[in-house]
């Protein structure tokens, strides 16, 4: 390598690093390139309540709020935050670590004050994004980053459920979506799934019967069957039929999975739906919040060889869709009042300007307040989608 050769890019060096060594590699790279004095990778926990530093496991450093303070602000707003420190010679730059809309955490970098210029901050933001992609890939080869997200041990059922998920958020030209599950560390049968293609986005919200391992096994079978049918190129109704047969053949109608299946045409906003059970869908258009009503069809696996039919509705630019499981709309307070549509509508109006993942979290927070308990007794799944539509070419 001659003197004029800058050597491998930072991205290439991150890719070449061992999966467990991304943080020390990032620390070395930023020290060389921008004179960084220190670096901390903070990952969001499963409940999206705190950010935890990736350090030597099984121990981690002190947590910080995922919604307050400089790091929490960077995580919530998805913009870099520059923090003035007690030392006038240094600044802290807090950068969102996000992969295709899925918020993983925050990269906090201490730099000399002269380095805290807009151009350097932009370079650091690009670096944080590259690091996020490597963290996502490294999760296939090491437990380090999954363990660092935990404030306590997950139940086995929750472990199974979290491994099923495609992520907690996704963003593309036509839409942005975010999702939230509670109780995060002991979730059982409620889950969600999505897949984006060149022409459409398929989204499902599933509410499985039972509790614990039984519910997690049912959810795993249901999601696996739906993915198998989807990847075989079947239409939405046929996906439901195949999953229905798979669940019935295993449980004989004794256990079943209530599922809402949606497929949105990315070019036109036409949405196809199969309502196979209890999850509900709401549409927020302007200041109006309305439930999107479908013809109710049997849950997957309740009866043998059930035939399903698709229905359609239209999504317009600026619409927000919210899909919720029974654990949200059917939950009662200690006085017997259901969460209901009234409270839900209030929360949706109050969070209209927030990002979908924050809106989904706010719905669950409102539910927890409604039941007056630190943790829910029933599973709750919320998926929020903002539709912007495809820009005409």
TrEMBL record:
A GO term, aspect molecular function: phosphatase activity
Keywords (A to Z) from UniProt: Hydrolase
InterPro entries: Bact_Sigma-Reg, PPM-type-like_dom_sf, PPM-type_phosphatase-like_dom
Domain PPM-type phosphatase: 172-387
Pfam families: SpoIIE
Protein name (record): Phosphatase
């Amino acid at each position: 390598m001659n003197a004029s050769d800058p050597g491998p890019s930072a991205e290439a060096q991150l890719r070449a690093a061992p999966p467990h060594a991304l943080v020390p590699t990032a620390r070395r790279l930023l020290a060389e390139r921008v004179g960084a004095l220190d670096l901390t990778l903070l990952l969001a926990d499963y409940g999206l309540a705190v950010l935890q530093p990736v350090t030597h496991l099984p121990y981690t450093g002190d947590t910080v709020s995922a919604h307050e303070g400089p790091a929490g602000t960077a995580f919530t707003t998805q913009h870099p935050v520059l923090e003035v420190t007690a030392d006038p010679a240094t600044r802290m730059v807090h950068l969102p670590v996000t992969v295709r809309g899925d918020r993983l955490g925050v990269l906090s970098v201490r730099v000399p004050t002269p380095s805290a210029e807009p151009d350097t901050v932009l370079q650091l933001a690009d670096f944080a994004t590259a690091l996020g992609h490597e963290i996502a890939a490294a999760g296939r080869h090491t437990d380090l980053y999954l363990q660092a997200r935990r404030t306590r041990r997950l139940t086995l059922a929750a472990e199974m459920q979290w491994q099923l998920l495609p992520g907690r958020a996704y963003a593309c030209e036509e839409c942005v979506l975010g999702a939230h599950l509670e109780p995060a560390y002991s979730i059982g049968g409620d889950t969600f799934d999505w897949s984006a293609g060149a022409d459409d986005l398929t989204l499902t919200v599933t509410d499985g019967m039972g509790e614990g391992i039984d519910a997690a096994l049912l959810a795993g079978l249901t999601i696996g069957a739906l993915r198998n049918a989807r990847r075989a190129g079947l239409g939405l109704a046929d996906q439901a039929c195949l999953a229905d047969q798979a669940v019935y053949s295993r449980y004989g109608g004794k256990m079943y999975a209530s599922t809402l299946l949606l497929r949105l045409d990315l070019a036109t906003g036409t949405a196809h739906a199969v309502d196979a059970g209890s999850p509900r869908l709401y549409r927020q258009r302007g200041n109006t919040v309305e439930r999107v009503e479908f013809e109710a069809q049997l849950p997957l696996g309740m009866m043998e060889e059930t035939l399903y039919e698709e229905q359609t509705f239209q999504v317009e630019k600026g619409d927000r869709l919210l899909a919720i499981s029974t654990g949200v709309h059917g939950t009662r307070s200690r006085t017997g009042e259901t969460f209901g549509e009234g409270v839900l509508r209030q929360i949706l109006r109050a969070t209209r300007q927030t990002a979908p993942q924050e809106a989904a979290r706010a719905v669950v927070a409102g539910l927890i307040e409604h039941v007056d308990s630190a943790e829910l007794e029933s599973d709750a799944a919320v998926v929020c989608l903002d539709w912007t539509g495809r820009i005409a070419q």
